[in-house]
Amino acid sequence: MKLPRVSAVVAAAVLTPAVLFPSTALAADAPQPAGVSGSDTVSEGEPTQEELDRAEVQKILADKESGVSVREAAEKALAGTAADLRHFLEVGLHDARYIDCRVEVTKFLATGGEAVKEAAKAALRGGSYEGLVAFLKEGRYQAQATDDRLELVRLLGRPQTGRGVKEAGEKALRINTPAALRHFFEVELPKVRADDDRVEVTRMLGTAGPALQRAASAALSGTYADIVKFLKEGQYAARAEDDRAEIERVLADPQTGPHARSAAQKALEGDAAGRRRFLESGLAAARVSDNRVKVSQIAENGGPAVRKAALAALEGDDQAVLAFLEQGWAAARAVDAAAPKPTGQPTERPTDRPTEQPRTTPAPQPTATAPAAPAAVQAADRTTTTGGTTARAATTGTTADTVARSGQLAATGADGLGWEAGAAAAAVAAGAALVVVSRRRPAGD
Q1: Model confidence pLDDT, tens digit, residues 349-401
Q2: SS3 for 176?
Q3: Could you tell me the CA-to-CA distances from 17 to 20, 24, 439 in Å, in that order?
Q4: How far apart are CA 348 and CA 408, in angstroms?
């Protein structure tokens, strides 16, 4: 009875390793959870590696400096497994940052100055992540300082740059550090430019036309935005209104010559830019042409001194012509008026009426050396009956022509008749000269 009991104990001892050891082997071959190893075993209450990775990814996602690619990859990792989190931190983060750096550097190609663009191109051509990071951390600021310095020099050289901007810019240029140059453009320039703009609008009030004055006053009464809008747009609309009114005044002026009148009418029918060009240069050029035409007419109709001075002015430049009209013409007329009259010419002025004899004074008797008392009609009757008096009539015509020319000179006197009145005055003077001649007879009749 004891033998069976012993056999059972022995059998149990033999079978026990076969049962226990296969279970241990199977347990060792079973797959472990991702991200967990024997060394990851932590005591109760301490975070696991997955929890640590998840917290790190969330911290990267919350960073404002993280780019679009980094955020997208981080969000994808957080939605995955512990292995996805570990892969993002070891590989994906670097790749995403490289993409974001290239995108950031590329932006400077569109917004940077010349030096910044060249530095950005060099970083992109290099292709390395380290080169891109170096540009974003240091290279762009060095290149920006070069661009700021060049831009500041150009700004100071512009004639429209205000006094405040020039003073602040020159100070920054003397310091000549990247920080000082950037501070000028980002902080000081907007403030001093606002002051200069207000001064510029105020200055316009002293020389502007009515419309421009109204617009400038309204801008000064408003905000700085109103001043900027006035300088960019409003002043030009107001100037256009004033220019149109000025051209209309030129056309209404009777002293405006034909060339200036034609050019003014053409400008009035054109656009605002054409009207501004006319007032700035076209009007002066047209008046120069009119002045030369007027001096030519004076030379043709004036006395000896006037003719000589007019021709000399025409041979000179535009200033000589203008000087003649303003001063030389009057001086030459005075010379002609003071010159002695040639022998045989009437002593009285052609435009004056002959002094009438008193009715109580008897008419002088005709002699061989003095003109007869009868009127010019009787002299004309004698010239039709004798051949010798025909030559005398021709002489009378020559004298009338001389008197008419003198009458034209008188008509263009210091009063300065207008363009339309000149021809009429010359005709009236010629008629007056004929009346004087008809009342005189040559000696020997």
Answers
A1: 444 444 444 444 444 444 433 333 333 333 333 333 333 333 333 333 333 33
A2: coil
A3: 5, 10, 171
A4: 15
Measured CA to CA, the distance from residue 100 to residue 210 in angstroms comes to 57
Q: How far apart are CA 33 and CA 83, in angstroms?
A: 10
**Residue-range domain boundaries for the chain:** 50-200, 372-445
Q: What average pLDDT does the structure give for the chain?
A: 75
pLDDT at 336 over 80: yes
Q: Scanning the structure block, which residue is given the tokens 């003071």?
A: 338
Over residues 273-291, the pLDDT tens digits come to 999 999 999 999 999 999 9
Asked if 227 and 197 count as a contact pair (C-beta separation under 8 A), the reply is yes
CA dihedral angle for residue 351, residue 357, residue 363, residue 365, rounded to 10 degrees:
-50
Coil, helix or strand for 89?
helix
pLDDT band at 308 (very low <50, low <70, confident <90, very high): very high
- Residue 428's nearest CA partner among 414, 417, 441, 443 is 417
Q: What does residue 323 show for φ and ψ, rounded to 5 degrees? A: -65, -35
What's the whole-number mean pLDDT along residues 28-35?
39
Q: What are phi and psi of 59, to 5 degrees?
A: -65, -40
* CB hemisphere CA count around 53 (13 angstroms): 23
Element at 287 (helix H, strand E): helix 283-301
Exposed (0-12), middle (13-18) or buried (19+): which is 277, by Cβ within 10 Å?
Answer: middle
Q: What pLDDT sits at residue 353?
A: 42
Q: What is the crossing angle of helices 329-338 and 304-315, to 10°?
A: 150
Nearest Cα residue to 393 out of 384, 403, 402? 384
Cβ contact 261:251 at 8 Å = yes
The DSSP letter of residue 139 is I
